[in-house]
Amino acid sequence: MIRVENLHRHFGGFRAVDGASLEIAKGSITGLVGPNGAGKSTLFNVIAGALPPTSGKVFLDGEDITGLPPHELFGKGLLRTFQIAHEFNSMTVRENLMMVPPAQTGENLWNSWFKRGQIAREEEAIRRKADEVLEFLTITHVADEKAGNLSGGQKKLLELGRTMMVDAKIVFLDEVGAGVNRTLLNTIGDAIIRLNQEKGYTFCVIEHDMEFIGRLCDPVIVMAEGKKLAEGTIDEIKANEQVIEAYLGTGLKNKDQVGA
């Protein structure tokens, strides 16, 4: 579904992404791991249109989407979440979800005067969709809570819910587990698996929690120094000497040998 070819993103003399090439298969939950500074979030930002590449290409279903702005990629079904959740603090959880669908009739001042019936019907349909999303994510109990009052994990669920308000093809999740307790992280993991299996979502997940990655992701791609270092199952990644050296540390290998 996504193909990245020899992608570079430089900041002056610093090469955050330095010739990365990788593919994300349709219907997969692909993990993207690596040490801090490996270029993972920058890669996400370039793919999702937040940053232009210095050079290289990005393709979505064979279409060259290199450098397209986020709103155009949103229309093509490519969405991303952020390490720090971006919610509308003063709006309720339900209202945050209802804001997502684009080109709503009520956004036009003329329509607000002369198409009130159409607006009401459209808003009711969007509200029903939002309630379905809340039920899917098991957070109906906070539907009328101000989004700014949610816990970190609930905000991550809300971000995931916003991707469900449109016809997403692929969702890039940036450190979905950051600041989230284990119980809510399991809930988020369950939701990702259900979206993948029941609704056909494709995911690419940046995460440092290897237990979480191991539960969800196959394959796992490892980045280091701005490029792809390795790819495989979680077990193959843990046994890869280059990965152990660059990211996981020799301590993990020694621990596994002692355990064996």
- Structural class from helices and strands? alpha/beta
- Approximate helicity band: 40-55%
- Major beta sheet summary: 6 strands, mixed
| Shape-level CATH architecture | 3-Layer(aba) Sandwich
The proportion of strand residues reads 15-25%
InterPro entries: AAA+_ATPase, ABC_AA/LPS_Transport, ABC_transporter-like_ATP-bd, ABC_transporter-like_CS, BCA_ABC_TP_C, P-loop_NTPase
GO cellular component, one term: plasma membrane
GO molecular function: ATP binding; ATP hydrolysis activity
Protein name: Branched-chain amino acid transport system ATP-binding protein
Please provide a brief summary of the model:
This protein has a single domain (2-87, 150-257), classed as P-loop containing nucleotide triphosphate hydrolases (Rossmann fold), CATH 3.40.50. The chain contains eleven helices and ten strands.
Question: What would you say this structure looks like, in words?
Answer:
With 260 residues, the chain is of the alpha/beta class. It has a single domain, classed as P-loop containing nucleotide triphosphate hydrolases (Rossmann fold, 3-Layer(aba) Sandwich). Helices cover 42% and strands 22% of the residues. It has 11 helices and 10 strands. Strand 7, helix 7 (182-199) and strand 8 form a beta-alpha-beta unit. Helix 6 (152-163) packs parallel to helix 7 (182-199). It is globular. The two termini are 39 Å apart. One of its GO terms (cellular component) is plasma membrane. This is Branched-chain amino acid transport system ATP-binding protein.
